[in-house]
Design the sequence.
């Protein structure tokens, strides 16, 4: 799942749960996750 | 204010009794707890009874060791049999612990007198102690400011002389942050060294139990008692001349309040002047510490709280509820990436310590923040309080290395500044010996108010 798709789904779920105040937290978390995914310690099936 | 060492000397030469010092602590609690809100539960009757029993034992020739008769407070996240463990949350209403946590059992065997259970950030999930079902604890140096967290009530209790030592927990800095904010010593041992059984978890991967005290010697004594070694005597300090310290300035000194930076640099210069070697080093992946920390600690917390978040979310304080709800959205693949990051960071920290006795860095980038502030100005830029509080402590929860926070002066307005020493994994005693060596050079007065 891409981070963009994850963020859309997470915000939609938060809205459905009537918790829109989660949106800024999820957006901040998405930035953190993006940094994690770009790290050079991640496994890669081509290596 | 008396240290455990001083207490022991005076107890054994007959100048004081455990009952008298316990009464003095209880009197300070009665006087100051309305102002500081450090205690959730005061165990006055039990404490007086325990203290009298310890005095009778000593008179009969039974000396349990350095903690014999010492009044100690306990973070209300740790089970004491027959007493509620509230975790500062309404979610825990009705809970009563059926037995002592192993650490509490060890303290009792060591002869400690338990004066009560201290306030904390709800479920230890915060760094300021503001979100508590019992209201915020306050900093004895300035009651408009946070005592740090999550073991904020614990630190306040020692800094204000309500106990000679306290037991806290540390998942991202919750012993060292309040120790620094309140001007006392805090020790996070190596991961797994002190039992976390009978402790309400925040992140089972990163949770630690350890002491907050007035001096490094006292931290040694309480740390050993927590391990079940209640007759340990403090070791000789490592000779300061020739000690090898390392500073990783990138990341660890990038964002510091001006006065914190000044106190830290002064401490480093004093250590240099006393003969310590101080080298500059790099931790290659330091910029990824907080993201690795989040992607492991949040799933841990989410798993523990999922059922109660579904069943009775309104019982959580709003900020803690919000962060726990966010935690439930993390993906398993990102958790696995973070585990790989943890190993990388651990290797880098291990490598930095192969040539050095300890890393040296500030504990908090800022002095204790005003209660209710979400951001603080740091060197002219607004920064989030939560990120600032965790920035320099969470790295060693991720890597598991032992870390010791010690006071190294105050700001112009009298707020304490703390400095950390970080040692090799499973070398907590060696770290404490480094701390004993450094303490006289960096300390400016005792931490209490």
Sequence:
């Amino acid at each position: 799942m891409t981070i963009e798709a994850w963020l859309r789904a997470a915000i939609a779920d938060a809205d459905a749960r009537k918790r829109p105040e989660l949106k800024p937290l999820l957006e901040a978390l998405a930035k953190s996750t993006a940094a994690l995914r770009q790290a050079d310690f991640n496994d890669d099936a081509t290596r | 204010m008396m240290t455990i060492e001083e207490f022991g000397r005076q107890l054994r030469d007959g100048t004081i009794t455990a009952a008298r010092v316990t009464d003095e602590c209880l009197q300070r609690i009665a006087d100051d707890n309305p102002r500081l809100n450090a205690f959730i539960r005061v165990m006055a009757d039990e404490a007086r009874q325990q203290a009298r029993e310890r005095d009778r034992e000593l008179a009969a020739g039974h000396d349990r060791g350095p903690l014999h008769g010492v009044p100690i407070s306990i973070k209300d996240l740790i089970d004491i049999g027959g007493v509620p463990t509230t975790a500062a949350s309404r979610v825990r209403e009705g809970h009563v612990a059926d037995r002592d946590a192993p650490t509490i059992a060890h303290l009792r065997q060591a002869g400690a007198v338990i004066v009560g259970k201290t306030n904390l950030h709800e479920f230890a999930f915060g760094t300021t102690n503001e979100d508590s079902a019992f209201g915020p604890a306050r900093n004895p140096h300035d009651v408009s400011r946070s005592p740090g967290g999550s073991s904020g009530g614990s630190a306040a209790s020692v800094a204000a002389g309500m106990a000679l030592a306290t037991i806290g927990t540390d998942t991202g800095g919750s012993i060292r942050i309040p120790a620094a904010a309140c001007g006392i010593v805090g020790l996070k041992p190596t991961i797994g060294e002190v039992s976390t059984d009978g402790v309400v978890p925040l992140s089972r991967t990163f949770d630690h139990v350890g002491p907050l005290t007035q001096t490094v010697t006292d931290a040694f004594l309480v740390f050993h008692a927590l391990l079940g070694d209640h007759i340990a005597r403090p070791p000789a300090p490592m000779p300061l001349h020739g000690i090898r310290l390392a500073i990783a300035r990138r990341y660890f000194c990038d964002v510091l309040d001006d006065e914190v930076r000044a106190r830290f640099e002064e401490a480093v210069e004093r250590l240099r002047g006393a003969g310590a070697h101080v080298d500059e080093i790099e931790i290659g992946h330091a910029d990824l510490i907080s993201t690795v920390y989040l992607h492991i600690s949040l799933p841990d917390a989410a798993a523990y709280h999922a059922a109660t978040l579904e069943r009775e979310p309104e019982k959580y304080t709003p900020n803690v509820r919000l962060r726990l709800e966010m935690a439930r959205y993390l993906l398993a693949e990102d958790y696995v990436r973070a585990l790989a990051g943890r190993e990388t960071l651990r290797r880098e920290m291990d490598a930095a310590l192969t040539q050095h006795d300890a890393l040296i860095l500030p504990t908090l980038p800022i002095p204790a923040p005003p209660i209710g502030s979400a951001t603080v100005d740091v060197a002219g830029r607004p920064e989030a309080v939560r990120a600032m509080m965790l920035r320099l402590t969470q790295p060693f929860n991720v890597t598991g290395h032992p870390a010791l926070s010690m006071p190294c002066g105050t700001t112009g307005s009298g707020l304490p500044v703390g400095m950390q020493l970080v040692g090799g994994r499973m070398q907590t005693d060696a770290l404490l010996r480094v701390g004993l060596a450094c303490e006289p050079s960096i300390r400016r007065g005792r931490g209490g108010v």
Summary: Residues 289-311 of chain B form the longest helix (23 residues). Chain B is about 40% helix and 15% strand.
